[in-house]
Amino acid sequence: MEPRIQYAKTSDGVNIAYATAGAGGPLLMMAIPPLTHVQAMWETVAHLYQPLAERFRLVWYDFRGTGLSDRNAIDFSMDAMVRDLQAVVEGAGLTGFALFAVDAAVPIAVTYATIHPEKISSLILADGLTKFADYYQNPAVVAEEALRSGDWTLFTETLARLWLGFENQELAAKFAVYIRECVEPEAYRTAVSSMGNEDWDALLPRVTAHTLVVHNRHNRFLPVQAGQRLAARISNARFQVIDDIGYVQLPGIITGFLGEGREVEATLDLASGTAVILFADIVDSTALTERLGDAAFREKGRDLDSSLRTVIRRHAGTAIEGKLLGDGVLAVFTSARQAIEAALACAKAGEEASLPLHLGLHAGDVIREDNNVYGGAVNLASRISGLSAPGEVLVSDIVRGLARTSAGVSFEDRGEQELKGVGEPVRVWVVGKRGE
After folding, report:
1. What is the DSSP string of 290-350?
2. Which of 33, 89, 214, 435 is the most buried (most CB within 10 A)?
3. Are 411 and 315 in contact (CB under 8 A)?
4. Comparing 10 with 325, which gets the higher pLDDT?
């Protein structure tokens, strides 16, 4: 497997290099600015990137002024760094994606997550901080600053040893070469001097994505307390201390957090045109509108729409922005299990809002144009949704077959059903809790 390297242009005209590899749910990786080089990362940090590319559609990129991006653009302000990230998200066509960030990339990821919460399903923050003072007060950084204006080769070799430990000389020497490949001395100095000028701590409570914070116990630059403070500031964030400076264990931690686990599950490749499709429609919306009044119904509907889209993101799905149904949502998933979990959570959200839903799931090929999806499989999902009782999740035989051993639910056979506009009967199943 070799990465595909492409370019995206930012709103201020900077060419940003990004790479993609693998298939499955989208995962965007943000490395430490300004130490990024898309090709070198794939090779030097192979133990992190390549296992993840076997499970996800992996996307990573070079910040401006680094790697294969425009090297003469050395504006490392937060606005500029967020523009880089936005360009990659748009260029790679990402939505409903998991975002991973490490060290100094954490503030950028958090800033983006508060600007575009609808884009991100999950957030993984490794060795992060709440304030740059956490970083600069560390004794290791004092030694780093003393070297920064001197010999570049000596500085990179010393920085690599401070980072990885003096006992691993061979790995540190390779990392020093990698640093020099990523960035020029002037750009490095500019980046480091720029990063302490932003106040982003106040953004943390506004993060709504499903979040995991991991921190290395023996991090030489940031104490564990920095990670604890970061997790404490984000609502419902999970915190995990690790002993893994080289991030060898991280692929397994990320995969587990994103719900893939170790069980064998049939997942579908959205990029190939195949998807698991969810339709959720409010039951008898016309009667509800007449009873509540148009304004009241629309307000309740908008609130429920927001809740459903949050549920979909948290289960790694993509709500179709161009398919505003007025009384429900359409979403696509790459995992049958996650689609079923999302449908059950949507049913609960509808019940809590006193707006019960019809819910249906089908899997098949779709045609993607702009922000919409089309095709016979979409129509079938809609028809199956219409058969369901209020709050009930109905799935086609295809979805049941995909998730039968991994979804942790039961399936009750409702037999073959005649669907309007469909030539042959379709077998459908009601989803229930295991044991029902």
Report:
1. HHH-HHHHHHHHHHHHHHHHHHHHHTT-EE-TT---SSEEEEEESBHHHHHHHHHHHHHHH
2. 33
3. no
4. 10
Can you read off the two tokens belonging to residue 108? Answer: 């950028």
* Sequence-ordered list of residues with C-beta below 8 angstroms from that of 163, at least 6 positions apart, any chain: 172, 175, 220, 221, 245
How far is 7 from 362, CA to CA, in rounded Å? 35
How far apart are alpha carbons 357 and 393 in whole angstroms? 9
Residue carrying the six token digits 């497997």: 1
Grouping H, G, I as helix, E, B as strand and the rest as coil, residue 410 is: strand
* Joined tokens for residue 109: 């990821």
User: How far apart, in whole angstroms, are the C-alpha atoms of residue 321 and residue 311?
Assistant: 15
Q: Which pLDDT band, with edges at 50, 70 and 90, does 313 fall under?
A: confident
Query: Residue 298 and residue 240: Cα distance in Å, rounded?
Result: 42
Q: Which residues pair with 280 in a beta bridge?
A: 329, 359
Could you tell me the two tokens for 198?
A: 């932003």
Total length of the chain? 436
Crossing angle, helix 294-314 and helix 336-352, to 10 degrees? 150
Record the pTM. 0.59
> Which residue, among 147, 175, 145, has the nearest Cα to 163 in the 3D structure?
175
Read off φ and ψ for residue 18, nearest 5 degrees. -140, 155
Peptide linkage before 34 cis (omega within 30 of 0): yes
Pairing of strands 97-102, 26-30: parallel
Q: What is the DSSP letter of 24?
A: S
Identity at 115, one-letter amino acid code: I
User: Residue 134, Cβ neighbours under 10 Å: how many?
Assistant: 18
pLDDT in tens, 44-55: 888 899 999 988
Q: What is the pLDDT of residues 383-415, one digit of tens each?
A: 999 899 999 999 998 888 887 655 678 899 999
Structure tokens at 187: 């750009």
